[in-house]
Each structure stands twice: as C-alpha cells, then as structure tokens.
Design goal:
Elements (H helix, E strand, L loop, with lengths): L11 E4 L4 E6 L2 E7 L3 H27 L6 H22 L1
C-alpha cells in the first residue's frame, strides 16, 4: 500500500449541468473527467474519500485483529481488510 497519492487529491465535486467531475481548490476549479451518467460522476467524485476510508478501515482491522477472540468477528475483519486491500490496489494501480 502506497503512502503518497499519485492521483489528484480531493475533494472532487460534480457539476450537475454537464456531469463534469471538478477539483475544487478554494476559488480555483480544475476539470478531472466527464462522465456519461450522473451516477458514474458521483462515484468518481467520491473516489478520494473512498480511498481514504478504505485505508483507514485496513488500519483499524490491523489494530483490532490481534485482540479479537471471537472467531466470527475475526473472520469478518479479515474479509473487510482483504476487500479494502483489493480496492486500494485497484485505485493505486
């Protein structure tokens, strides 16, 4: 898992007029992408936040797993951790 972002950092927003994904940096706006569907634009705009959430979830799972005695909870934490590792790997290339 990389520690430095290679993507354009967020927050990103969506222009509802033309489904553009925009980086809002104070008064400055930069175009990130245009999507054919609003749902895709919203998902893309959430990407930096989702990556940060997945990274935090991995850290939380790694912290909780050694102290977890319940086998079912341990299995669920491992599944969540592995799912997040897969998503992070996709995002980081």
């Amino acid at each position: 898992m990389s520690t430095s972002a290679k993507h354009t950092p967020g927050p990103w927003t969506v222009s509802n007029i033309d489904r553009n994904v925009i980086l809002q940096d104070g008064d400055e706006e930069r175009w990130i992408a245009q999507c054919g569907r609003n749902a895709n634009a919203l998902l893309l705009a959430a990407s930096p936040d989702l990556l940060r959430a997945a990274t935090g979830a991995v850290q939380l799972c790694e912290w909780l797993l050694p102290a977890t005695l319940d086998p079912e909870l341990k299995e669920r934490l491992e599944e969540l951790r592995d799912l997040c590792y897969t998503a992070i790997a996709k995002a980081e290339g």
